[in-house]
Amino acid sequence: MFVEMNGTEVTRVRREQGLTKKALAGAAGVGEHTIKRAEDGWLLLPATVHQIAGALGVDAHTLGKRVQ
C-alpha cells in the first residue's frame, strides 16, 4: 500500500513554516530527494509520509491519500 501525496499541500505547509526542502528532510530523517518526490505528488510508503507529517507537525492524512 502506498500514499499518493498532495504535493501542493506538502509545499504549502513547508513554506508556511519557513522550512527549506533540506531542512524538512533533516527533520523528517529522509533524503531531500524524498521531499522533492512528496512535493511532486509521487507515491510514498506510509511510514515515510508519517515521518514527513511528524516533522511538519500535521496529521499524515492531510498530506495524501492511501492507494492500493
State the gist of this model.
With 68 residues, the protein is of the alpha+beta class.
Describe this structure in words.
With 68 residues, this protein is of the alpha+beta class. It contains 4 helices and 3 strands; from the N terminus they run E-H-H-H-E-H-E. It has a single domain (2-67), classed as lambda repressor-like DNA-binding domains (434 Repressor (Amino-terminal Domain), Orthogonal Bundle), CATH 1.10.260.40. 54% of the residues lie in helices and 15% in strands. A 3-stranded antiparallel beta sheet has the order 2-1-3.
Question: Notable features of this structure?
Answer:
three-stranded antiparallel beta sheet, alpha+beta, 3 strands, 434 Repressor (Amino-terminal Domain)
Topology of this structure?
Blueprint: E1 2-5, H1 7-16, H2 21-28, H3 32-39, E2 43-44, H4 46-56, E3 64-67
Antiparallel strand pairs: 1-2, 1-3
Average pLDDT metric:
97
Low-pLDDT sequence parts? none
Q: Radius of gyration in whole Å, from Cα?
A: 10 Å
Which sequence of SSEs, written as H and E, runs from N to C? EHHHEHE
